[in-house]
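Q: I'm teaching a short session on how sequence maps to structure, and I want students to see two examples side by side rather than one. Could you give me a first protein with its sequence written out and its structure tokens following it? Keep the formatting plain so it prints cleanly on a handout.
A: Of course. Example one:
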Amino acid sequence: AKAAALLERQLTLARTRAHSTALQAFGSSRFHAVADHVAVLASEVPLSGTAEDLGLLADQAEAALAEAVAALP
């Protein structure tokens, strides 16, 4: 249980850092939704799996990201 809690905390910290870095890279808060979406997608990647599994997830992530970008003003 302690290991799971520690791993979850580390993943949350990494997701927060990735989100902040993405916002800084974009230079504007109006891209906040894209940065949120990318951070969430990155956190949903399984820690193990076959190449086919990861390929399908990558395709789904790319489609979701393209949708989010298209929805930007």
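Q: Perfect. Now a second example for contrast.
A: Example two:
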Amino acid sequence: MRSRAPKPVPAVLTKENAETIYWRPLEEGRITALDKRAARAIVSDGERRIYFTGDFVAGRPVRFRARGSAGEHWVGIFDESGGRIGSMSFVLKARTEMSCDRGPYTDIANRIEQLLRKNAENRSLLINGRLYRMFVTWGRDHVHTLKAMKYLADDVKSGLEYWLESQEPNGMFWDCIHPNPDYPAPTWFGEALGKGWYRYDDGMKYIVRRIPVEADCEFLYTEGVWYAWKASGDDAWMAAQLPRLEKALKYNNSHRDRWSRKHGLVRRSMCMDSWDFVNPLFCNGDHRCINPGDPQFLFHSDNSGLYASYWRMAEMYEHLGGEANQRRAAQLRKEGEALRQRANKKLFFGNCYGHMIPETLPEKEVYARVGDERKRMSLSTGYTINRRMPTHAMAVKILKEYQRRGKARRGESFAEWWTMDPPYLSHQWPRGGGKGFPIGEYMNGAICTIIAGELAKAAFDHGMEAYGADILERVWKLSQRDGGELHQVYRRLPENPRLPKARFRALDLRAVVNRGLRNGAHPEVVAWTGEGDNDMRNLPVGRRKFGAIEFDVIDPKTNGGRAVLRLDGRGKEGPRSVTIPVDGVKAQSLFFMHATPRSIPHHDVAGVYDVSYADGSVERIHLRTGYEIGHWWGVTDTPDRRRGEDKVNRDVTRVAWRGANGLWKNVGLYMHGWNNPHPDSAIVAIRAEAYPAGARGGGLMLAAISASDQPVAFEPRIRSYGLPDCWSQAAVYYAVAEGLAGIEDLERGFSRVRIAPRWAASQSDAA
């Protein structure tokens, strides 16, 4: 039997970047005709919309740029009469990228993309036989992270689907899911909230909760559906969620726990912004619960969130089309506008939205106890602007008020991105035996990069582009100051403190290091502590500052896969000691970047460093846990007020770096500073020895040593605590992508886009 000869190919398709299979948006393609009959080429996008038509002239190839909707693009080759003589296809994959010639703006976006991929939990939870990908297992955190991950992640729907599909009959959505710590038995972790506010899933494996005082889940999941629909372009999926969003809307605007009939607005207990703890002055029980007799308050963010649900749902109905959907969209817009008018009349006070406005209590009595809530600005103000609740004129007044307060408080705060301003005094929000919340920490007035991102986006949208660019420039400087990280919240401190200008010299550890950083990167070298993906993969390498101290961390790629020294107190997993040669350096101080590989009891001596001098003398440095060194898992130098003990002695030891690995989001190393009692004597060697401390033998992990010409000095701790990093990072990414770059998806899947770049207000000449 004779085989058929293959049909001749009428044309050849080549792409600009031959190293990749998939095409990128705006990548140039060339269609070269091989068939003499070929007269015209037509190219259509993933939705079969023709975006290019070109004629073959004198045998020259036709050039085009790939654009339109992602997916499979079709190339048709036609003869002069319009008859098709062949076709080809290619796949366009969109990947968000930004670049500019000057300024830090796209460096911010690129850094945040890396941090998001590192810091978002990205947990795939197997629940009842189904995988759900959650960036964070708190639903609101997942949605706020989705604000950026919609540009970066392939799966934007499954993490939401768990919450959507587990909705309660009354329309309430659940808040967070955690492995049951007491499985298969019940756990107090959820049951303490009371009946109706917790449930178990997958045969008691998981505890699912709703913190009762939280009034935001319903509108946030609506926001999440809106993001996922726009990113995926999945109309059928979006349409399937609308009945759930309708139930959530009704719960938000009618349920007795959430709705003020008196004012026609959303209400809640008196929380710090939208956080899950109530002011003890107005709470008759558990601070997370709505207790009988607890007075209620009106908060602009809850109402702007509900307002956004109205217009987002209206947009989705309008896109689906049809008479019934158009009627529902019009009704939603009308109801939303009425809510907006009520909220702005009740909650806006001249140049800002107030914080917690009493629903029924006499306002003067409340303000006498906690301060004037009409003048208190909080974290969610930027959200409210970007949810479109204020008019343009109102938004400008708010932004200018932030500028005014920032200038007025420059002596106490390096930025105006406060979680609360003014903060609550101890008698206004009692806590911890009357001490109150520390001013300038956490939700009581700390500096928050969530607010930075939201304010920058608002500034770009409301004609204050220079202010938006200025915020992004200051965020970059803050990230540089924080060792290349971008934390969620920082202490309310002045600009960089004046420290002695120090010069650092890195000591060479290449000959003694014996461990790698990333599991599997160099199969012949054990990574970190030898616990698989529980490694130190994201530790920055090379010469750089960690806070105010400069270290040079060995890049394992340049040293046979080895970057850190592992010592074992029992000699089983590494040598007990090594001697590091030093070439006669003189120093006022030495800094060591290190940690213990295992948890060692507080105050135990994990090991020593013996510093040897040219004259034969030796000085010993004892490394006590909780003073000069700490465990690499769960690193912190924040005072532990509950236990009454510090993780380290902050006068001489700080966190050098912290980040995530393959298993946990808070791993890192400490840096210990030691004032050299013989600064004029040459150092010839440093001997490091691990002691067999603790039940498992102790040990040391040493990553770098630096010599300084100045005494030990650390800048004040700049990081605060309590908020998720990925949430704040997403807000800043969104400000760059949608604010500065001005990319806005007007439908879904970028089928209709508005590009209104604001680069002219930045340092960039080309972007």
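Q: What should students look for in example two?
A: Point them to this: The first helix runs from residue 105 to 119. Also worth mentioning: The mean pLDDT is 92.
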